[in-house]
Amino acid sequence: MSKKTIVMTGGGTGWHVFPIRSLLETLFKYEDYLDQTEKIYRFGSSHSLEEQTAKEFWSKITFQSILSGKFRRQKHRKAYLQNIGDAFLFCCGFFQSLFFLWKYHVDSIFCKGGYVALPVVLAGKLLRKKILVHESDVHPGLVNTIASKFATTTFTGFDNVLPGAITVGQILSDDIMPSTKAGFSPDFQKILDSINEEKSSLFVMGGSQGSKILYETFAQVLEKSPEIAKNYNIFITLGKLNENLKPLFLKHQVQVFDFLSQKEMGAIYQISDLCLARGGTTSLAEQKLFNIKSIIVPIPRTHDQKDNGKRYVEHFEDILLDQKSETFLSDMKKTLLDHINYKKPKVTADIFSEIQKAKMLIRKEILK
Distance (Å, rounded) from C-alpha 237 to C-alpha 239? Predict the structure, then answer.
């Protein structure tokens, strides 16, 4: 059996980047990949999150930067001009992809979505390469909608998302597994040891991009209803783009983190009963592994997060809040007051098996 040369592509946001990182971890976990792969490349934008995460696997993969443009659907003049410029970048990325796929003798392409992936997929189709696609959301993104039309195999996180797709669930990181191993910093371990187990625990994780209003509204809720801070163990991770909001929370009895590693996230998930979060499928799936009740606030400008939220409300009795509603603040306050005594059901599922399921199915197809 000849060895395969594989390209992993997708980027722009953590929703596209970190699942590829997790898939690479699983790919390398079992040494049989050495017998089946010649080389693995990571295609993405230069000086990006995809390049940053690729550095973790520097000894095993090679990063290749690709140009790409983003299609904007707005109708104003600025968007038209930006689309013209980005169309040129997209064409450059397409011809770059053709050259590198030919130069590296690539056999298979795995696409996770994001605009940087589209020129790679189209070039792969022209060169008749094997193309695999994974779509996380209930509402597929534009890139994966196009890529799935050329895919050899399409995987989805939910049923009935793309025609002919195989539902495998979400690509999750092994690092969120509950662990008793040493490795936490003394300060973080001290926080874990100080938890009042009589109280319900609330995890607030809006993320870096587009979550300023969510954090500011939650800060206002704490101001108007101080009993919330008194009756919950509260953990907040702001993300690097929202570090300036930290002073809003320092006077309250809450734990605020600028950033949490995946392992630290797993530790917080393990003790949390509720999570106030955006509607990204990866984080929602992680919360469900730990039986957390999700209070979902979709990013208003995206349809996919709202659709994700509706599905979780329907299937898991989670709660959906509308950030654009005039009653957003009062709705958030009421929801948190109503759940002060909420305790999540005991976790009985095999979390490790649940995390591995999607990745092992995709891994098998990549190496086939």
Answer: 6
Distance from C-alpha of 92 to C-alpha of 38, rounded to nearest angstrom: 27
> Residue 137 belongs to a domain with what CATH number?
3.40.50.2000
Please check whether residue 366 lies inside any domain of the structure.
Answer: no
User: What are 225-238's pLDDT values in tens digits?
Assistant: 999 999 999 999 99
Shared-domain flag, residues 17 and 109: yes
- The DSSP result for 316-368, as a single string, is H--EE--TTSTTHHHHHHHHHHHTTT--PPPP-S-HHHHHHHHHHHHHHHHH-
Enclosing domain of residue 259: 176-349
DSSP 90-106: HHHHHHHHHHHHHHTT-
Its sign, for the CA torsion 66, 153, 29, 177, is positive
Q: Model confidence over 197-210: pLDDT tens digits? A: 999 999 999 876 67
Domain membership of residue 24 (yes or no) is: yes
* Those residues with Cβ within 8 angstroms of residue 367's Cβ, 6 or more apart along the chain or in another chain: 4, 27, 32, 33, 36, 37
Residue 61 has pLDDT above 60, yes or no: yes
Q: Tell the burial category of 11 from Cβ atoms under 10 Å away from its Cβ (0-12, 13-18, 19+).
A: buried
**Contact of 121 with 131, CB cutoff 8 Å:** yes
Among the listed residues 85, 76, 9, the one whose alpha carbon sits nearest the alpha carbon of residue 42: 9
Query: What's the CA gap between 144 and 228, in Å, rounded?
Result: 41
